[in-house]
Amino acid sequence: MQIDIITVVPGLLEGPFSHSILKRAEEKGLAKVKVHNLRDYATNKQKQVDDYAFGGGAGMVMMVEPVARCIEALKSHRDYDEIIYMTPDGETLDQQMANSLSLKGNLMILCGHYKGVDERIRQKYITREISIGDFVLSGGELAAAVVADAVIRLIPGVLNDETSALTDSFQDGLLAPPIYTRPAEYEGMKVPDVLLSGHNEKIANWRFEESVRRTKERRPDLLEGKDFEADEKRK
Ligand code: ADE
C-alpha cells in the first residue's frame, strides 16, 4: 500500500512515519507514506495556495488550482482506491473503517488547512471525507497521521504477532480486557489467579467476560443489539 498525503505543512508529518511499527512497515515493503508539499504545485510566483473566501468572513480557503494540479500529478503515477479529505464534517473514523481501508492498494489523503478546501475540489476529486472526532484541529495533518497509523498496523505482516490486531479493542465490537505483565504482585496488587493458571480455555473465558464487563461499564452504546449473554450460555 502507498499512502500519499498532500499538505501545506509537511513538517507536521515528518515524525510519525519514521518510527516503530510504521517505519518497520516501510522497511518490510508493506506500506509507504509519501508527503507532498502543496506549495510545490502553486501556480503563481508567490507560491500562493490560499485565498480569501467569496462572500467574506474570517479565514482563508485552499485554492482549487494548486490542489487540482497536485492531485492530477499524483494520479498520473498511480491509481488510487480512495481520495480522502480530512475534515471535521466527514464520516467519523472507527475500527470498521480502518479495517476496510487496510484492504485497499493506494490511498491519497488531502489535509484541510485554513478554513478548508474550495468545495469544487470535494465535488470533483474526493471519494471519502473522514473526521477523527467531534473537535476541530488546526489542520488535517495530525488527523491524517491517525488514519494512516490505524490503517497500516492492520496490514497483514506489519505487526510481528499476527493475532495482536485481532485482539484489539473494537475489533470484535468490545473493549479489550485488562492486561498484566510481571511481577505477579506489585504493592499488594495481585494479577488475577486465572491468568497464571496456564488453563487456556479458562483464560479465554475470563478475558471475554472482562471485555463484556468493561464495555458495559464504559461504552454501553457498543453493546446495543448484541446478545453476549446468549454467547456466554452457549459456552
Ligand atoms: N481537521 C480539523 N479537525 C479535524 C478533525 N476532527 N478530523 C479530521 N480532520 C480535521
From TrEMBL:
What job does the chain carry out?
A: Specifically methylates guanosine-37 in various tRNAs.
InterPro entries, per database record? Alpha/beta_knot_MTases, tRNA_m1G_MeTrfase_C_sf, tRNA_m1G_MeTrfase_TrmD, tRNA_m1G_MTases_N, tRNA_MeTrfase_TRMD/TRM10
Q: Name one Pfam family in it.
A: tRNA_m1G_MT
Q: Which family does it belong to?
A: Belongs to the RNA methyltransferase TrmD family.
Q: Name one GO molecular function term.
A: tRNA (guanine(37)-N1)-methyltransferase activity
Q: Which UniProt keywords apply?
A: Cytoplasm, Methyltransferase, S-adenosyl-L-methionine, Transferase, tRNA processing
Domain (tRNA methyltransferase TRMD/TRM10-type) ranges: 1-224
Has UniProt tagged this entry with the keyword Cytoplasm?
Answer: yes
The answer to whether UniProt assigns keyword Lipid metabolism to this entry is: no
Q: What is this protein called?
A: tRNA (guanine-N(1)-)-methyltransferase
EC number(s) stated in the UniProt entry for this protein: 2.1.1.228
Q: Which Gene3D superfamilies match?
A: 3.40.1280.10, tRNA(m1g37)methyltransferase, domain 2
NCBIfam families, A to Z: PRK00026.1, trmD
One BP annotation, GO: tRNA N1-guanine methylation
Its subcellular locations are: Cytoplasm
Q: Which gene produces this protein? A: trmD
Q: Name one GO cellular component term.
A: cytosol
Catalytic activity line of the entry: guanosine(37) in tRNA + S-adenosyl-L-methionine = N(1)-methylguanosine(37) in tRNA + S-adenosyl-L-homocysteine + H(+)
Report the principal subcellular site: cytoplasm
Q: How does it assemble?
A: Homodimer.
